[in-house]
Structure prediction request, 818 residues.
Amino acid sequence: MPTTTFDKESIKASIVGKLQRYNGRTIKEASNQQIYRALASTVRDQIMQKWMISRQERKTSKAKRLYYLSVEFLMGRSLYCNILNLVSTDAYQQALKELDINIDDVLKEEPEPALGNGGLGRLAACFMDSLASLDLPTMGCSIRYEYGLFRQKIIDGQQVELPDYWLGNGNVWEMPVMEDACEVHFNGHVDMTEENGRMTFVHRDYNTVEAIPYDMPIVGYDTSTVNSLRLWSARSPKRMNLSDFGEGHYVQAAAEKELAEAISNILYPEDKHYEGKLLRLKQQYFFTSATLQYILRDFKKLNGPDWQRLPEQVVIHINDTHPGLAIPELMRLLMDQEGLGWDEAQAIVSKTMAYTNHTIMAEALEKWPEDMVRTLLPRIHMILVEMNRRLCARLWNHFPGQAERVGKMAIISYGQIHMANLCVAMTFNTNGVSQLHGDILKAETFRDFHAVMPEKFSAITNGITHRRWLMACNPKLTSLINESIGTDWIKDTSLLSNLAPFADDAAFREKFAAIKRENKLRLTEYLKRQQGVTVDPDFMFDAQSKRLHEYKRQMLNALHILVLYNRIVNDASFTMEPRAFIFGSKAAPGYNRAKQIIRFINALSRLIDAHPRARQMLQVVFLENYDVSSAQVLIPATELSEQLSTASKEASGTGNMKYMMNGAVTIGTMDGANVEISQQVGMDNIYIFGMRSDTVLDMYRDGTYNPMTIYETNHEIRQALTQLIDGTLLPEAPGAFQELYHSLLMADWGSLADPYFVLKDFGSYSMAQQRVNQDYADKDKWNRMAVINTAMSGVFSSDRTIREYNDTIWHMTPLHKH
Ligand code: 26Q
Prediction:
């Protein structure tokens, strides 16, 4: 095999050559976009050779392969991380320097694939990076949405959504794989006939959608492994032709084509809010069916039709319930296409599939109307009915006479398909994403399942890839770490703890703090350039960035800032360490209360700016269009990380880990992975406040919480809440926050007053913030805490998470020694 070396000179020659051949331009004449494409395709050439070798290696070694199914992969930009994983940053940096190209300007030209909403999608992306870096053969499978998550503009203090047409300039990283295209069938009916004493099921009169796969390479760090992310695109089998036009069918034909292709048009922007939309069901079946067909074809090519061996060769992981139709789809293919009987097929399915749950929020639990499933997927519906019959028979034995209990665990009940029950019942493993979340799944959400099948439950704490979230986004801190403890930590992040003794080294702390300051300056420049906001880098940078949701309690943060403002305004002698409160959040377009909170934060920002003394000490910045790229600028610049979810509600959180790794100190509740962060750093290096999860769960059960008593006794809260509705914040629209105000104080039909205990936890939060303020004034103390946070973040690398998944669930053999 010819191997081209990619030293500095060949990189330069490649870029210059591509610009000449594709654009007819010299470097001096080329636009940044053209240079980006020439550079990215140079990197792609380098990856392509490894990709071919990896493919061969998997086939000859017959290694077990993971298929990670997810409706979201929030990848972020690839170019820089690919160069990093090729261990070629020096060669590329020098080459670009000699060509007089500013690398930062070029990196910005890459469109960001925002094929995800938040934590679940970003976790899938971090997992892909770790899987390749640990040489575990994997294919990630999802949908090639033409429009990713909307882009957010703030206009007059409110969120406005713009379409994200990310493929407009083409996508350097994708490769269509036409030989793996297949058909997915919808609607129609199923004919049952008996042949030689066996029932056969034939799907007839269906509508066909073609599934075209586009593969993206996933490069492992310092290894030859390159895995694939396979994104399926929907295409109508209809080809528009002149005879349609002549016969007047043209408009009809075009409309049908549009309908089929709509399947891969857009990513749904709802995060943790389920709605039974037909198009979403189509998306889910479309990509799971195409994926399963491919998996079986590939298996058969390598192993023949020896289906008993499927669980040895293949493991299929279902990222939340969204790809759960993979379960009946695998049953269908094994029975109707490969001729297996039910028992054989079911045994194979339940040895091959595993499931991770990402939320206990009731409104996120997927339920599909049975009628919709019966009409759209008639054969899948039949299989679900039979699965449900067998499951209920088994449960009935376990819980004789307990109809209500069995009903709660059923796959189908009251005319709805319960996806979580399907996934728990039919897979061999149900996983939680932090220790606390795993415990809550066993004790609450899936309590009854846990009683019947306790061996299925596991909890593996989430992680983040330190390659993107430390090495790529914070190169200066990475160099300081390398100078101090060497580079072995990159492959074994537990070694980051060797940094802990440096917390007591004053010279080291100075360097650590100087890097934080440079990162703050970089964020300041970013905010100036992107949205024209000026921020003083001498302020403490305090950030809360994550999807906007009531349970994440951006409201707690915002109300506290309003209280600080009031203290300043009411008391001329009040002072505090100056602080910039930075928010980055998108609200689901239909989630009105979340949009009101964004409007409140922006109104608060304006209120403070208008007050000469308040703005000496406080600033509120709303970072527009928070995405992976802006996170990579924000997080390294942050000193205080706000992780405020109502205890029990945040399954894990992963932003908390990114901030910690970059030396931010956390203020947070004992929720999700915050619990484990507190165990790593110790209670002296984190600010924990608020109710514990067991108390929260008890309070939901007894239902006696009344925020009105807090409102009546705490005048600071009363004043702040009153300002929501008295025109202080929005004189031009004084009624705008009425509903928000109401939700914090009054119960409504079907909803509790202050359902996430904002008022209840306010006092405790405010006291923790006072400690933050005091400690920040002591620079040595603060910097010591910051260093400890980075030093103890090693366990939160997704490399650790993936090793645990592999040891307990997947059982693959790495392609190379580790
Ligand atoms: C479901 C049905 C219909 C429409 C939308 C949805 C839907 C979409 C997205 C349901 C849930 C989500 C996203 C969930 C999510 O991001 N959960 C987060 O997962 C992270 C990774 O495990 C955790 O760290 C977070 O705590 C958890 O909130």
